[in-house]
What does this fold into?
Amino acid sequence: MKIEELLEDKGLVCSNILHALPEWFQIEKSIQDYALQAEKLPTFAAKMDNKIVGFLTLKIHTSSAAEISVMGVVKEHQRKGIGKALLEKSEEYLRKKGFKFLTVKTLSPSIEDENYAKTRRFYQANGFFPLEEFKTIWDENNPCLYMVKIIDQNENDSHPL
Ligand SMILES: CC(C)(COP(=O)(O)OP(=O)(O)OC[C@H]1O[C@@H](n2cnc3c(N)ncnc32)[C@H](O)[C@@H]1OP(=O)(O)O)[C@@H](O)C(=O)NCCC(=O)NCCS
It folds into this structure.
């Protein structure tokens, strides 16, 4: 398995993988929005036998914080360390540019959903902490859990706004 930054077809890769994950992504408009955004954002892909089996797209917010806009690994290759490898590559990319925090928004545990429970376990196992629930940022049927990971521990740095 190889992780590399994608420089073209980012939207297509995003759309193909999200369509292959209907247990997590059902709303066509959201898939299209993620794909449109991915076109312009730093995106990493995991390749196996020259086939892309996972991806992660980063949204840059400030000089210190970036967000996982969206990520996904096709079901047959989940739980093989690909998500973790995508995260590690993204964190390395961000640390080199001086970023301190990586955030992600995912479905809150206040809605029972076994698939997103797995997603949260992935983030928790990989150093993310739950910060706050936003009940209506998406819509009232999809409360959002905001999570953060410190990706650079140097406490003496200060960053301009
Ligand atoms: C979440 C996702 C990206 C994780 O990728 P992955 O390649 O399956 O995860 P990894 O194999 O790298 O997991 C790394 C560690 O995270 C934890 N983890 C991952 N999946 C888990 C699960 N289903 N249950 C419990 N822990 C889990 C484990 O500690 C795992 O290490 P281990 O297998 O040695 O125990 C992937 O499962 C996925 O695409 N899910 C559907 C889409 C999604 O939820 N995207 C995020 C939207 S916000």
In short: The mean pLDDT is 96. The beta strands are 2-6, 43-48, 51-60, 65-73, 101-107, 129-139, 142-150. The two ends are 38 Å apart (CA to CA).
